[in-house]
Amino acid sequence: MFSGFMTNAWEVATLVALVAGVVGFFVVLRGSAFPAHAIPNGAFAGAAGANLLGVSPLLGLGAFSLLGALAISGLTRRTRSDVATALVLVFMLALGAAFLSQSTEYEPQIFALLFGEIVGVSSSQLLPVVVLAVAALAAMAFLFRPLLLTSLVPEVAKSKGINTTLIDGAFLVVVALATTMTVPVVGALLIFTLMIGPPASARMLTSRPTVAALLSVAIALVVVWAGTASAYEWNWPMGFFVGAYSALAYGVVALVKKLRS
Length: 261
Description:
Blueprint: H1 6-29, H2 33-53, H3 57-76, H4 81-101, H5 107-115, H6 123-152, H7 154-159, H8 164-186, H9 191-205, H10 209-234, H11 238-260
């Protein structure tokens, strides 16, 4: 379990947990669950299109994630956030259906992108994931304070001259980066659980933002490591175990909190 090709799996799983834990904390804090759900599901269309063209699905994921984030950010300035997100999502899903209808040799790769395939991570895929992880974490470090202010006290943020619209758009771009690196591991359909379950659990444990962010990463690491071991042991999709363990972590924290109160 800890040798050979599984070495790449453990390394990628750790990077995924670090990024998802930090980004997911702000997804929960800002109430951005719908965009965080829409971007990876819509970006799946990019992977399907890339597969049709015979290029790396990671390129398609990255392109459609970024385009989806920019489109949501742009439309939100003209209409409600939920309407803008839904419009972008249905359009990208329509493109995905069109791409899939033209392909005849996609089943293994598409299944992996939908539900995750941690044991299929190759050495050639490791470097792009590392680059994306470093970029996402660096962006979150740079945006940490402005994101906190615009999330918790937007009036104070505006009084300090912070452009909230720009921060919102930058955060969606970071979500796109996180999506690009995590979808091949967790899957487009279940990445949402990794960005919501651990951060939501962490927020129930403490009201201090920095501590909650660190707890979110710690819970995400436990969930992803347990999911990696389970996927290897039982040969089930990684996304299933990540979703199940994320829900279990949230349930346990909620139960403990209720009993203590």
